[in-house]
Amino acid sequence: MRYYQQEVKKSPYFVKENTLQIYPGEHLFIEAEVKNGKLGSMKVVKKNVNPSKTIEIEFSQDVENRKHKGMMLQVSNPFDKNLLYDAMMYTVGKSQWVETSILPVKPKLIGFELWNDVIITLVLHDWRLQN
Question: Model-level pTM?
Answer without folding.
Answer: 0.87
